[in-house]
Write a structure and sequence with these properties.
The complex is a heterodimer of chains A (219) and B (607).
Chain A: E1 6-12, E2 17-23, H1 33-43, E3 63-66, E4 69-72, E5 83-85, E6 92-94, E7 97-98, H2 101-109, H3 129-134, H4 159-171, H5 179-185, H6 205-214
Parallel strand pairs in A: 1-5
Antiparallel strand pairs in A: 1-2, 3-4, 3-5, 6-7
Chain B: E1 2-12, H1 16-27, E2 32-35, H2 44-47, E3 52-53, H3 63-73, H4 80-89, H5 91-100, E4 127-128, H6 135-148, E5 151-153, E6 156-164, E7 167-175, E8 180-191, H7 213-220, E9 225-226, E10 231-238, E11 248-250, E12 260-262, E13 268-270, H8 278-290, E14 300-303, H9 305-308, H10 311-323, H11 325-335, H12 337-340, E15 346-355, E16 358-359, E17 373-375, H13 392-414, H14 422-433, H15 444-459, H16 465-482, H17 495-519, H18 537-540, E18 542-549, E19 552-559, H19 575-587, H20 590-600
Helix pairs in contact in B: 1-6, 1-13, 3-4, 5-13, 7-17, 10-20, 15-16, 15-17, 16-17
Classes of the chains: A alpha+beta (219), B alpha+beta (607).
Pathway (chain A): Carbohydrate metabolism; tricarboxylic acid cycle; fumarate from succinate (bacterial route): step 1/1
Family (chain A): Belongs to the succinate dehydrogenase/fumarate reductase iron-sulfur protein family.
Protein name (chain A): succinate dehydrogenase
Chain lengths: 219, 607
């Protein structure tokens, strides 16, 4: 058997910790982290629990940490010696699956949907360019893994996912709520001197979402 | 342990159809539960291209014209009564989507920016686009579900409908994250589980959720399935590298006015590609492969370079790149920057995209032969006949989601106590519950992979009697192995368990496809047979209907009622008119051409 070249940090609910497991995976050209997970599952252990959906960077199911940074497994090239682990700051459930529910619940708690003042649909609408840049958010929840402030148990801080959604709504010409005030009440000022959050799809969260909500620049 | 829940309306599926129906029913005061097999809002709706039908952009357009285009493209297999319902309501689909929170692409001036040209099969420009394609629809659906307080059971797979005789009254389901079984009693149930593209993995554009669950749930509850041999293979998908096989990189339209579709020896296999339907292009490519002239990756060659030599071609390609950014992005990752710019040819082959066949319904989405059950979206059969034209599938979710949501809420308010045959329900639950810990010889995932390979090779874009018979034998073999599976004993997050449940649905759905394909002895729509290469309107202007009695499938062929659109009707764009426009354009100086096209394609608008 060849030397192991991939580490998967598998959360074990009985122990309450991640247990590193090493595997050998032949890294052919162009192979992605998702292919590595599928290979491990279909070669060594079919009980490896991980999520994936579309293989094409659009569904957002396969967000995981690779070497400590959030990535989409289907978009990320595999590398020798890499470590795949569950997203940080969310509750791990089993292996690399995390609990999405606490962030799902924030959608209704924080009214993260358009509160329209009754415009006619399909009518004239001036859409800011930064809206176009933000609306591609896959809701994969990868960004919260890169945020040093976020913790799913602490509801007083919004975190990057919530701020991206609030910024989308702030920039949506139909939305009638004060999303900047909402962001302030969720601790966005903590982000003003920080720019560690990253997006697996390359959304500039700090500039386009947090900057917009903080009223920086011309946004 | 079987947890029991109760509601007025149960929606099985949490893509566009399921959530629109749920929100609509909840707004009418119904208590609603939604089951979502994967994290909700992440399925085929989110990963769609985001093209949405708006059939009243051109003043000359009409519901009749749309209906004609759909039925002609569908090669007359469509359920015309259902098409009529759709076409009458289709103008409201896009409005409803914006009310849910989506914003369609606008010009800088703020007015809508529909695609200026008709998609293949359409007689008029009728398509809106969305910034970031289907992604914001997923976000909007989740927002709308939260707004009205719909209860979503996430990562929960329905394993059987429950009820009493022909009355459906909810479902038994597995909550995969915890391993808990639930029984949901419902006055009305709506199936919105999507299609079955995953039966062809990796040759599919679909999410891995699409394992055909809904067809099987319905069939086992006494429903019938219609024209299940009709799969849509979208012609242009990537052939390599391995992780990207089957991922879509284009409609026929991507060929542009001068793009050429060639075999590995450089011979043209089809002319005027962009005017052809998805079925026509996919069939031509599959036939060429059959004649042994595929590339080393098993594909054909789409050469876009002739476009770049002409103003019209260059402008059209620029426009298409902007309209389908994720497809171009996929090309860039697979074949490099030059390919993404159209400067080097693409290696392409069809991929399973949409299931036209499905559950037989009335024009108001009620399932034939079963009470208190609706079917909407891709799981429903008959709307698209033998071939679906672009931009209709997202619209259908909103048209039929709102229709079924309203009807189900109203019916639930008139439904009294619901009766459930508890012993059958408990039996099903106990069977599913007993799967973890089975110590047989076969891991379910390997049986799933074997089935997928068999279906792609034998029941894919090209078929014949020998291949179909072989597929049927293989399905029987896999079934025998299915009775000897090996499943980890763990209850929470157990992939073996989910695979075993999905395998069961995939086997039956696969068998229905194969048996229907064997019966249809002609080529029509997405069903292309080497041994019956012609469409045969005399013998086969029929719907193939499949039912199940005592665990045995029963097939019959029914005449298609041509109530509105008759054989010989014409649909789609007028190629002659377009050719004349091209000719006139090409006489003009390059600068003038450029100016006209920028205005027509909204290109200048972007900078």
């Amino acid at each position: 058997m060849e030397e192991p070249n991939i580490i998967v940090e598998r959360y074990d609910p009985a122990l309450g910790v991640c247990v590193p497991a090493s595997y050998f995976v032949p890294l052919k050209d162009g192979i992605t982290v998702l292919q590595v997970l599928l290979y491990i599952s279909e070669t060594y252990d079919t009980t490896l629990a991980f999520r994936y959906g579309c293989r094409a960077t659009k569904c957002g199911e396969c967000a995981v940490d690779v070497n400590g940074r959030p990535r989409l497994a289907c978009l990320t090239p595999a590398r020798e010696g890499m470590t795949i682990s569950p997203l940080k700051h969310l509750r791990p459930i089993r292996d690399i699956i995390v609990d999405r529910a606490p962030l799902d619940e924030r959608i209704s708690e924080l009214r993260l949907y358009v509160k329209s003042s009754g415009e006619r649909p399909l009518g004239a609408l001036k859409v800011p360019e930064s809206y176009e840049r933000l609306i591609g958010c896959l809701e994969c929840y990868g960004c919260v893994s890169s945020c040093p402030q976020f913790d799913w148990k602490k509801r007083e801080f919004g975190g990057p996912y919530v701020f991206v959604r609030l910024a989308q709504l702030h920039l949506d010409p139909r939305d009638g709520e004060d999303r900047r005030a909402q962001a302030r009440s969720l601790g966005i000022e903590r982000c003003s001197s920080c720019s560690q959050c990253t997006c697996v799809k390359g959304i500039a969260i700090r500039r386009d979402a947090i900057g917009t909500l903080l009223g920086e620049g011309k946004a | 342990m079987l947890t029991q829940l109760e509601c007025d309306v149960l929606c099985i599926g949490a893509g566009g159809g399921g959530i629109v129906a749920a929100v609509t029913a909840a707004e009418r005061g119904a208590r609603v539960i939604v089951l979502s097999k994967r994290p909700y809002g992440s399925g085929n709706t989110r990963i769609a291209g985001g093209l949405v039908l708006l059939p009243n952009i051109s003043p000359e357009d009409s519901p009749e014209a749309l209906m004609r285009d759909m039925v002609v493209a569908g090669e007359f297999l469509n359920n015309q009564a259902l098409v009529e319902t759709f076409c009458e309501r289709a103008p409201h689909a896009a409005e409803l989507m914006e009310q849910f929170g989506v914003i369609f692409s606008r010009k800088r001036s703020g007015t809508l920016a529909p695609l200026p040209v008709p998609l293949a099969g359409h007689g008029f420009p009728r398509t809106l686009t969305i910034y970031s394609e289907g992604v914001p629809i997923g976000t909007a659906l989740r927002g709308a579900a939260s707004r009205v307080g719909v209860q979503v059971l996430d990562e929960t797979i329905a394993v059987r409908l429950i009820g009493d005789g022909a009355n459906v009254a909810g479902a038994i389901a597995l909550r995969w994250l915890t391993g808990e079984m639930v029984m949901i009693r419902a006055k009305q149930t709506i199936l919105a589980t999507g299609g079955l593209g995953w039966l062809y993995y990796p040759h599919t554009s679909n999410s891995r959720a699409m394992t055909g669950d809904g067809y099987v749930l319905a069939l086992r509850a006494g429903a019938e399935l219609v024209d299940m041999e009709q799969q849509q293979f979208i012609p242009f998908a990537l052939t390599h590298p391995e992780p990207m096989v089957g991922i879509v990189c284009g409609e026929p339209a991507i060929a542009g006015p001068y793009g050429r579709l060639l075999d590995a020896k450089g011979r043209q296999i089809l002319t005027r590609v962009r005017m052809k339907t998805r079925a026509q292009v996919s069939a031509a490519m599959s036939l060429a492969k059959e004649h042994g002239i595929a590339t080393q990756h098993g594909g054909m060659v789409l050469d876009l370079t002739p476009n770049l030599k002409k103003v019209l071609g260059t402008k059209m390609f620029e426009f298409l790149k902007r309209t389908f950014p994720s497809m171009i992005d996929a090309v860039r990752r697979a074949y490099g920057e030059d390919a993404a710019k159209g400067r080097t040819p693409w290696d392409v082959f069809p991929t399973a995209h949409y299931q036209m066949g499905g559950i037989k319904v009335t024009p108001d989405c009620r399932v034939w032969g079963v009470k208190n059950l609706f079917a909407i979206g891709e799981v429903q059969g008959g709307l698209h006949g033998g071939n679906r034209i672009g931009s209709t599938s997202l619209a259908e979710l909103f048209v039929f989601g709102s229709l079924a949501g309203n009807l189900a809420a109203e019916a639930a308010s008139r439904t009294g106590d619901i009766s459930v045959d508890i012993s059958t329900a408990k039996e099903t639950s106990a069977h599913t519950n007993s799967l973890p810990g089975k110590s047989g010889s076969h891991k379910p995932i390997f049986l799933v992979r074997r089935l997928q390979r068999i279906l792609w090779e034998n029941v894919g874009p090209i078929r014949d009697e020998g291949r179909l018979t072989h597929a049927l034998e293989e399905i029987q073999r896999i079934r025998e192995m299915q009775s000897d599976v090996c499943i980890s004993g763990r209850r929470e997050c157990n992939p073996d368990w989910l695979d075993a449940i999905e395998l069961d649905a995939m086997l039956l759905a696969g068998e229905v496809i194969v048996r229907s394909a064997l019966m249809r002895k002609e080529s029509r729509g997405g069903h292309v047979r080497l041994d019956y290469t012609r469409r045969d309107d005399k013998a086969w202007l029929k719907n193939i209907v499949v039912g199940m009695h005592d665990d045995t499938l029963a097939l019959r062929a029914e005449d298609v009622p041509l109530s509105r659109i008759h054989l010989g009707s014409k649909g789609g764009a007028n190629p002659l008119r377009e050719r004349i426009q091209f000719l006139i354009l090409n006489i003009l100086p390059r600068k003038a051409q450029s100016k006209i096209l920028d205005a027509r394609l909204n290109l200048g608008d972007d900078s």
